[in-house]
Each structure stands twice: as C-alpha cells, then as structure tokens.
Specification:
By secondary structure, the chain is of the alpha+beta class. The protein has one domain: Aminopeptidase (3-Layer(aba) Sandwich). Helix content is 29%, strand content 22%. The chain contains five helices and six strands; from the N terminus they run ββααβββαβαα. A six-stranded mixed β-sheet has the order 1-2-3-4-5-6, sandwiched between helices. Helix 1 crosses helix 2. The N and C termini lie far apart (47 Å).
Length: 187
C-alpha cells in the first residue's frame, strides 16, 4: 500500500511498509492487540482469540478492516497496526471511518509510523467519501492526545462513550424477542 521512510536521520531508523491485512497476518495482529491491551492496562478485558479476529476481518460478514505495518517490507517483523470500520453519521448523511485500535511497538515509536498509519486511514476515508474520521483516546494518555492534536484532530471534551457489556448486556437484551417489536418486525 505505502512505504514510509522516517525523516529523523537516526542511524537505526528503518522504513516501513503499510498494507491491508491478509488472513496470514492474523497471528501478528492478535499479538499486537494483546500488546495494546497491556499498554492501556486493559488485559483483564482483552479476551478475543485469533479465531475471533480472523472471523471479524475475513469471515463471511467482516466487521472490520486492518492495516499492518512491517519493517522494511519484511513479513517477519511486524511494527504496528490500525484496525478500523465504518459508522454512519445521520447529521452528515455519510459514512464515517472509525479507528478502533492503533498501536506501534515501543521500539518503532518516534519514527513516524503512527502518523503514517493515520495518514493512510485519512486517505482511505477521503477515497471512500467519508464525512469524518474518528477515534477515542484514553484521558490519561497525554502523549497520544498531544500527537493527535498536532495532526489537526480535535479531542471532544463534551462526549463520553456509553457501553453495555457482559451481564448488563444480557439483562438489557433479554426481552428483545419477547414483548414489543423486534428489529425485524416493522409492521
């Protein structure tokens, strides 16, 4: 997809190849997801398997897409990834691109790879006619917030993510097929 050359002149700087993920990338992608969970201190909620990821990316009804970055095009050394999917804005009347996860291994940070992944996604969003490109950032991650703002992103102070999961999701959804209409019942 794209080759990115760091411009900082460090003697150990490397180039990266960023491309669309393929089924043979799932093991590396899953390892990167686990590394991201460790970085975000969220390993206790990271329960996905390689099979879950393979199904989400390449199954009969793909839920997401991913870009993977490899060092010098070497298929053995994975440096980072971005996992994304489309949402829809009723206000804009257009699709949006939602970045679910972005992670660059610590040893490859500072070489421009995070920026290159975001630039590649912004290009996809433009190519696909998206009205916006969005993602969430943990409020304690000040370096990431500064980095995103330096790219022109606005961190929205008024919005909070609402989430229903586990037992709460089971309770909330338990009557979906009982009384009242269901999503498929449009009389």
């Amino acid at each position: 997809m794209t080759k990115q050359q760091p411009g900082d002149g460090r003697p150990n700087a490397r180039s990266f190849v960023i491309r669309e993920a393929r089924p043979d990338d799932v093991a590396d992608l899953h390892d990167l997801v686990r590394s991201l969970a460790e970085y975000e201190r969220l390993t206790h909620i990271c329960v996905s398997t390689q099979a879950d990821l393979a199904d989400a990316l390449f199954g009969p009804r793909p839920a997401a897409e991913a870009l993977i970055a490899r060092v010098d095009g070497n298929s053995q050394m994975c440096a980072g990834f971005a996992l994304f999917f489309h949402t829809y804005s009723t206000f804009l009347g257009r699709r949006s691109l939602w970045l679910e996860d972005l992670f660059v291994r610590p040893e490859h940070r500072g070489a421009g790879l995070g920026r290159a992944l975001l630039v590649a996604l912004a290009g996809l969003a433009r190519e696909r006619g998206c009205g916006r490109f969005e993602w969430a950032v943990l409020d304690w991650n000040a370096p990431a917030i500064r980095f995103y703002e330096s790219l022109g992103a606005t961190v929205l102070p008024d919005w909070r993510i609402a989430r229903v999961t586990g037992d709460a999701l089971a309770r909330l959804g338990k009557d979906a097929n009982g009384a009242g209409s269901t999503p498929g019942d449009r009389r």
